[in-house]
Amino acid sequence: MSSISELYDVSWEEMRDKLRKWREENYRNSEQIVDVGEELINEHASKLGDDIWIIYEQVMIAALDCSRDDLAWSCLQELKRQFPDSHRVKRLAGMRLEALERYEDANKLYDSILQDDPTNTAARKRKISILRAQGKSSEAIRELNEYLEQFVGDQEAWHELSELYINEHDYAKAAFCLEELMMTNPHNHLYCEQYAEVKYTQGGLENLELARKYFAQALKLNNRNMRALFGLYMGLFATSHQPYTPQNPEAQGFAARNRDEVDCVQLKFQHIHGEGLSC
Amino acid sequence: MSLKLTTQAYCKMLLHAAKYPHCAVNGLLVAEKHKKKDSPRDSVLCVDCVPLFHGALALAPMLEVALTLKSRLIRPGNIFPVFNCPILIDAWCKENKYVIAGYYQANERIKEARPNQVAEKVAARISENFSEAAMIMLDNSRFTMDCFVPVLFIYDHHDNKWKCREPSTDCFEDWIEAQKITAALLESKSYESLVDFDNHLDDLRNDWTNPEINKSVLHLC
């Protein structure tokens, strides 16, 4: 079994930097993290300095994802030794119990953290994750709503809630969550595009028009977003065949304009074909 | 009307599920178009699968792009091999004389193998165009690296309901081969290079027809 450094011809510094990149951008490539991290810990622990503790944490979580309980346990032991009374380490111990499906014990651990420190957001979010893992979606949604009443600025939580609502087909509420995210991140084309997808899925002329607008906005923010381009096309198509109704006399006008825009989008596709752009 | 799977179709389904163990995944199964339209087939052979999405499966726009968008967007005759333009499933099916014959889904949670609303809707849509369409749910709880047992629940459409078939190895063209090759590809982590339609939308250079994996399957046969 050759090591990562031999296979890919990388130095330990490059491996450490890769781990940092994955950590900062929240990647869930757990198998890679375990491979790289395990080697770093086993071969180069002394060179890492204080970085080693955060690497232990990252590798432990990745090890849980890969069912490597041996590795997770040894990382946890090191962290417990270094930070004996830490809530952060306690939360990791809870995550290990979750991975072993010992949800009762995990909940007890998180409750003890919350008794000590009621503002500990990590423990509360883990409790909600347990509900999700057990398939208790409505309870997870309820708890997450309560959490967000207190911690309104937690974007990760808003996104999680939007996912839960989408899985329950409650698109109106999912849209609300994405609106919160768009308000605080107006330049994020991904939130715009996801909001448009939710609106499109909701259906109905108004929502389709709104979807079309937000797909267009996402494209404006990032003109390589293929989903936004496809979405814009689908939205235009869906709204370009509306008959006149007395309730919505402008519908035909919009429809005609949208039919012209369909041609523009087709030209854009050909333009992409020529330029070889990717997202 | 029984559905059969080739090794390639089964393999790619499992690789797709293995690539995203923390997400729900779904995709389509394709069969060759029946040449004699009047005589009925005795079985439908699904020769390949198209991995579609991972993560949020309940959103409509990209699913509609996958299922319904026709190739009029692309200049005719210029679909392949230029990989910097979107490859539409409809165009690929026409090129290879395939028809969409089934839908597969693996749920997010290990113990959850029942078809949900999304699965039923998509499968119903497919059966509008292909009356013998089947819906396949992956059984995550029996999914192992060795692939000793088939991990599928196959559902057929009877009287507007989806009924689960008795699990057996009859639905494989060659179960022993499928088991061996799938286990080998899982062991060699081929799932890391599997491309689904989502990956294609992220970067048009990613080819969801997965020619490299198809080659590996052929090579191991």
From TrEMBL, chain A:
It is a peripheral membrane protein. The keyword Translocase does not apply. TPR repeats lie at residues 155-188. The keyword Metal-binding does not apply. InterPro entries: EMC2-like (IPR039856), TPR-like_helical_dom_sf (IPR011990), TPR_EMC2 (IPR055217), TPR_rpt (IPR019734). It is found in: Endoplasmic reticulum membrane. Residues 90-199 form the EMC2 TPR-like domain. Transmembrane segments: none annotated. Keywords: Endoplasmic reticulum, Membrane, Repeat, TPR repeat. GO terms for cellular component: EMC complex. Pfam families: TPR_EMC2. Part of the endoplasmic reticulum membrane protein complex (EMC) that enables the energy-independent insertion into endoplasmic reticulum membranes of newly synthesized membrane proteins. PANTHER family: TETRATRICOPEPTIDE REPEAT PROTEIN. Component of the ER membrane protein complex (EMC). Belongs to the EMC2 family. This is ER membrane protein complex subunit 2. It comes from Cyprinus carpio carpio.
Automatic annotation (TrEMBL), chain B:
PANTHER family: ER MEMBRANE PROTEIN COMPLEX, ER MEMBRANE PROTEIN COMPLEX SUBUNIT 8. InterPro entries: EMC8/9 (IPR005366), MPN (IPR037518). PROSITE patterns: MPN. It comes from the Eukaryota. Residues 3-161 form the MPN domain. CDD domains: MPN_UPF0172. Belongs to the EMC8/EMC9 family. This is MPN domain-containing protein. Component of the ER membrane protein complex (EMC). EMC8 and EMC9 are mutually exclusive subunits of the EMC complex. GO terms for cellular component: EMC complex.
